[in-house]
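User: Some background: our group keeps a shared notebook of sequences we're curious about, and every so often someone picks one and asks for a predicted structure to add to the entry. Today it's my turn. The entry only has the sequence so far, pasted here. Could you supply the structure so I can complete it?
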Amino acid sequence: MARPPKKVEQSGSSLGFEANLWQMADALRNNMDAAEYKHVVLGLIFLKYISDAFEAKHNELEAQKADGADPEDQDEYRAASIFWVPKEARWAHLKAQAPQPTIGTAVDDAMSALERDNPSLKGVLSKDFGRPGLDKQRLGQIINLVSDITMGSAPDRAKDRLGQVYEYFLARFASAEGKSGGQFYTPSPVVRLLVEMLAPYKGRVYDPCCGSGGMFVSSEKFIEAHAGRIGDISIYGQESNYTTWRLAKMNLAIRGIDAQIAHGDTFHNDRHPDLKADYVLANPPFNDSDWRGDLLKDDKRWVYGVPPAGNANFAWVQHFLYHLAPTGTAGFVLANGSMSSNQSGEGEIRKALIEADLVDCMVALPGQLFYSTQIPVCLWFLTRDKRNRGFRDRRGETLFIDARKMGSMINRVQRELTDEDIATIAGAYHAWRGDKGAAAYEDKAGFCKLASLDDIRKHGHVLTPGRYVGAEEVEDDGVSFDEKMKHLSQLLREQQAEGARLDAAINANLTSLGYGE
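Assistant: Of course. Here's the predicted structure to add to the notebook entry:
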């Protein structure tokens, strides 16, 4: 909203291509659990990506041999931020081995060789392709399938196509795994909405519960789409689940994104203790009761109140604030209960946040957006400083947006925010905030409302947007209330008469059959 986006070229692969590839890969899954199969397929896609990037550089160096270039010099690849791929890990070698019963061992050896020669990949790659329970014939078929992903793509476009496939497969695996899928994947439209609203053009971006890294990928896409420079942001993250951390490392590497992603429990082993981020983007576990909060009662992060041991929501909120720079802004997903709960001191913590004038914007989202839960969710936006800072002075104000009626059902159980929905919500925030080039802000009944601190106090420090935005305005059709009531009364009498006629006809039929009264 703040800058006009440039048109981003697609990599040549359409959704049809990705969907078709998924269908073929899913057919090869047979009876393998989705959580297990995910690591097989995504690991191979990653291996194909780094091998393709290596081969493109290798061919370039081959052409420059007369000028002294050495295609087997590892430093040539590292200087270009490309992983060195030893001969036993190159895709051509694995594809040749695909029909052999030893293909599983060959893939494991390739992964081990990659980790050996590239320290940043140590502990990231799966190395259990040779296990007896994995059908080697199907593994060979999957390798052949992945081999075709970038067919017809120029070398510089292959990375985009593989990245799109990786992202699409993450989403489909999250859907297939249901509740557990939420551990590693936030639906792309929700991520895009957060990123569009925050607009992270430059600075440090932090996600302390980063899952598979979708927030970071979307941030890089945002910068690219708005004609910015990828190197203008630095990325920091942490993920407690080891297998999910591995997915994140691969997801970012496949996009060529340099990031400091640590593994460990964010609350009990903060791996970025001194970080002050310009932007925090996060989707923490909803209502987490197993965060061992009783061990952290005296933690220095709890400036606005000690969060209850039975729910980590406000522990996450205060962790985000602790890592926020003096002019930083945080945008994150929480369960709707966080906006109104008064249990175990949560209401007092929320009140303290409000009275400190930290709450910039609240967005109520529609239901059924997530694979992992049907719990209604909302977006919180907190900022350390509502003074000018490139926007207008918003001290003492909070914007409320009610987007519960937005989105479209994409299947029987899943709703998705459209591009237009995302633009509408982000546009309202940017207009209210006073972004350069944004439209003038106006309250819109039923959708958005600028509220003062006194307004929020009158509502008992509850932050549910529906309390503030009011009812949507209904267009006046020019028909008076009296006329409408006369028409509806007449319609009701006609329907009652028709109901009586049908009842009589049914009774007559029952009598003719010998079942009359």
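Suggested note for the entry: Confidence is low (pLDDT under 50) at residues 1-15. Residues 22 and 169 are 7 Å apart (CA to CA).
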